[in-house]
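User: Can you help me understand a structure? I only have the sequence.
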Amino acid sequence: MLDIRPTGAALGAEICSIDLSTEIDEATLRAVEKALHEHEVIYFRDQRISPEQHVAFSARFGALEKHLRVDCCKPGFPEIFVVSNVIENGKPIGTQDAGLFWHSDLAYMSVPSRGSLFYAHEVPHDADGRPQGDTMFASTTAAWQALPDDIKRIVAGRRAVTSYAKGYYRDRKSGTRPPLTETQKARTPDVEHPIMRTHPYNGKPCLFVNEGYTASIAGLAADESERMLKLLFEHVSRPEFIYRHQWRAGDFLIWDNCATQHRAVFDYALPQRRRMERTTLTGTAPF
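Assistant: Let's start by predicting it. Here is the structure, written out as tokens:
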């Protein structure tokens, strides 16, 4: 039986006494998966795993994505996306500005990601030794449940346009990103997803719009679409729906990309180093 310790927030739980560098039996793996569906974000402290072990453990939950931005993938590991402010040989080793806005990973794809598995190698600290670079997670199931009925009636059955270009080009205060290549553009056309998405594993309704990539609501006039999206973005990020994870080196955290959104806290800068690595599970078409 797993030792599961909920955070006390709307989502999130720590799973104790599991060493991910060892072979996890099938029953334990299924219990971990069940905990993910229940708590939406789960994490394991004090892990020491290799890139090979990161990929192998992740792949036991399903097929893995190979990220669109190959320049930010770990050399030799196309399944591992590097999130870091570290510069080596004059070049960043990964993406330096990921997560500046509330978003769900790969929400802009016709088949968004099921989940992400994030391993903390280096965590920045302030002058007093307190960790920096937290990540905030919002429960989209709790947000939908608390949405006023009149708003639910307006958006129920409607679809929203998600746009990779919107998220890619918006101001990140970290310098201009290189233009998308024709291959990247071809892989990321604008797509529509239901605003109320049904979770594919537990059937819960989820509020599936995010400020990072959702561009408009199909079938609404531009001003009404903008007004409604602003309301939904503000609603989903209300404090009562949020768990804020304070990272430690060795943390391995899994989040559900249907049931959550997340946003990084940028309260650190070099020479304070932050180095994280992520694998991403393929998902299913929203319904």
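Now, to help you interpret it: Helices lie at 26-39, 51-59, 140-146, 149-155, 164-169, 182-187, 222-236. The chain is about 20% helix and 25% strand. Let me know which part you'd like to focus on.
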